[in-house]
Amino acid sequence: MSWATVEQYEARYGAAVDVDTLQECLDDATAQINSQLTAAGIDYSEPSEDYARLLMMVCRQMAHRAIGATESALPFGATQASQTAGPYTQSFSFGNPYGDLYITASEKRMLGIGKPYIGAVPAQVAPRKVWRFGDVCDD
């Protein structure tokens, strides 16, 4: 079972071109989310209503990034194009060229994945040596 349904995806992003591909992306996104949650030691077997909504949102967003990379009139993976007629310039910018599924840092924070870091590293200052022309380093 996926964290998001095709209906939930389409409610947010509109009708899918290929429902079977969308369902595969949702299933793959769910598997990747579950893997990340397991690695973080988070029990997702019975999520609260709020947490289930976050899981659905992340699953939809992941699928949309993957599908958006392939449903474009631009070349595969291109997010932006530029053309000039004379003297013949054409350029493309690529975002997610292969339609990979990935969880962004903000999505990880929403799900509580990742280790928060609180603390400081004490600074260590080396003694200063004045170097002059012709000095040789002994180190």
Care to describe what's here?
This protein is mainly alpha-helical and 139 residues long. It has one domain (6-111). 40% of the residues lie in helices and 9% in strands. The chain has four helices and two strands. It has helices spanning 6-13, 19-39, 49-68, 105-111, and strands at residues 78-84, 89-94. It has a two-stranded antiparallel ribbon with strand order 1-2. Helix 2 (19-39) packs across helix 3 (49-68). The protein is flat.
Helix coverage percent: 40-55%
Number of helices: 4
- Order of helices and strands, N to C? HHHEEH
Shape: flat
Summarize the structure.
The chain has helices spanning 6-13, 19-39, 49-68, 105-111, and strands at residues 78-84, 89-94. With 139 residues, the protein is mainly alpha-helical. Strands 1-2 form a two-stranded antiparallel sheet.
Give the helices and strands, then pairings.
Blueprint: H1 6-13, H2 19-39, H3 49-68, E1 78-84, E2 89-94, H4 105-111
Antiparallel strand pairs: 1-2
Helix pairs in contact: 2-3
Labels describing this entry:
40% helix; mainly alpha; two-stranded antiparallel ribbon; 139 residues
